[in-house]
Specification:
459 residues, alpha/beta, TIM Barrel, 2 domains, 17 strands, globular, binds iron/sulfur cluster
Length: 459
């Protein structure tokens, strides 16, 4: 049946158009008649017919939606002469489609080919996906009684201009943080006890934020004590180098933490100032050394596309981090997310794509092992986690690929039950005062949520 729609009434199609036009999307109509599509952009028509193999490569449940996006993408590419690294993909994890093809019986090579020929993904990105799926082998699927434990600390030192997390400057909220730590610890203990009673296995622990190490040493010790003794992959984000000292590093070690994130984002002094981080490059090196001496696996985050950085600035930071030989390096493309100070900043760092290309081409022995994309990301690019072989973070893989559920504790933390053929979520209150005020009833509601899901699973 022939149907025409104004793409601005369809969020998914609008997202494809935004790849090309940002927030200034012109009038575009899309008409579908079976496998035939006509896209009208500012009165100019582009017509396509998608028979096999494209038609055949898309599962029936997604056929119309995905074909519409492909038609729109093809028309926008023809109209503007531009291509996007991830082609027509928006709102879906690229690896999800890759795995979908593997499950349909395709080989790695064939799945990579489908990403290019059907979804218009560029060849280098299709190959990255293939390498990621290879790196994830043995670290993605676990028996359904496994769950990850996530703990959220909503405090940091200052606020980075690009930050959109539930996070406030700790110096302003010292009195609140004492109560928060006390109640959070109670939520953790109740959650861990609950999992024990239900016979669940904690696969990994991740303490994130905010910056957990912005808590005082005593507060940090209280939170980690509530988690208890676990002999699993155990990550604590220590993203702000100026929050790390020997005492806190010893506390992490004593509680069995295995992996820490020490994130400079850039090794360029002037950029650090521009993005609102009140620490120096030397602070980063000092913090890194404190963690390295204690034998933690270390992840370092870098962001491509910051402020006025050039491709050379980024390359210098990238090489500086590589020289330290951390176990993981994560390269993000700047995203101007809602909630960040730069969300309305129209400036675009045109060197971002070059920076990401540099990282991909110069990563050496590291292997890409997980990838995700966000809306409003510079150059429609991606975030990629790289790892030395064998040091891939299981929490990152299973959380990103949604293969293992999450018991989440703390303000704004989102729990996930994965099973029964679907994914169900329970969100803790984001606002810290509200989290504190409604604490008892909300923790009970969260555990009731898991109880119900586990009961359905067992029927
Ligand atoms: S270090 Fe992380 S949590 Fe803290 S302000 Fe920056 S982006 Fe936000």
């Amino acid at each position: 049946m022939r149907e025409t729609l104004d793409i601005r009434s369809d969020t998914e199609l609008l997202d494809v158009a935004r790849l090309f036009y940002g927030d200034e999307v012109p009038m575009i109509d899309l008409t579908q008649d079976g496998s035939k599509f006509t896209v009208s952009i500012l009165g100019k028509d582009f017509a396509y017919v998608y028979d096999d193999p494209i038609y055949d490569a898309i599962p029936d449940a997604h056929k119309d939606g995905r074909l519409s996006k492909i038609a729109l993408y093809d028309a926008l590419k023809a109209c503007t002469g531009r291509e996007m690294p991830w082609g027509a993909l928006t709102g879906v994890r690229p690896s999800k489609l890759f795995y979908e093809n593997l499950r349909a019986g395709k080989t790695d090579t064939e799945a990579a080919e489908v990403m290019q020929s059907v979804y218009r993904v560029k060849q280098d990105r299709a190959l990255v996906l293939r390498r990621i799926v290879y790196s994830q082998r043995g670290k993605i699927d676990f028996p359904c009684d496994n769950i990850n434990l996530y703990v959220h600390i909503p405090y940091c030192t200052t606020r980075c201009t690009y930050c959109s997390f539930v996070s406030v400057p700790i110096e302003k909220y010292r009195s609140q943080s004492t109560e928060y730590v006390a109640l959070l610890s109670e939520e953790i203990k109740r959650s861990v006890e609950f999992l024990e009673q239900r016979g669940k296995n904690i696969l990994s622990v991740y303490v994130g934020g905010g910056t957990p190490t912005s808590l005082s040493a005593k507060e940090l010790d209280t939170v980690l004590s509530a988690i208890g003794n676990v002999s699993v992959e155990y990550t604590v984000e220590a993203g702000r180098p100026d929050t790390i000292d020997d005492e806190k590093a010893d506390i992490l070690k004593a509680h069995g933490v295995t992996r820490v994130c020490v994130n400079p984002q850039t090794l360029c002094k002037t950029t650090l100032e521009k993005i609102g981080r009140r620490h120096s490059v030397e602070d980063f090196y000092t913090a890194y050394e404190i963690m390295r001496r204690r034998g933690f696996d270390i992840n370092c985050d870098l962001i491509a596309g910051l402020a006025d950085e050039t491709a050379e600035d980024f390359a210098a930071s990238f090489e500086g981090i590589k020289a330290l030989a951390p176990q993981n390096i994560t390269v993000h493309s700047l995203s101007k997310k809602n909630g960040s100070a730069i969300r309305f900043d129209p400036s675009v760092n045109r060197a971002t794509e070059e920076m990401i290309e540099y990282a991909l081409n110069n990563i050496g022995e590291y292997r890409p092992y997980y990838l995700y994309r966000q809306k409003r990301q510079a150059g429609n690019l991606e975030n990629i986690g790289f790892s030395v072989k064998g040091k891939e973070c299981v929490n990152n893989i299973t959380t990103m690929e949604e293969t293992v559920g999450v018991m989440a504790c703390g303000a704004g933390a989102i729990s996930k039950f994965i099973g029964n053929g679907n994914i169900a979520r329970y969100a803790n209150l984001r606002d810290v005062p509200l989290y504190l005020n409604k604490f008892g009833e909300r923790v009970t509601a969260k555990l009731d949520f898991f109880d119900e899901q586990y009961d359905i699973e067992n029927k």
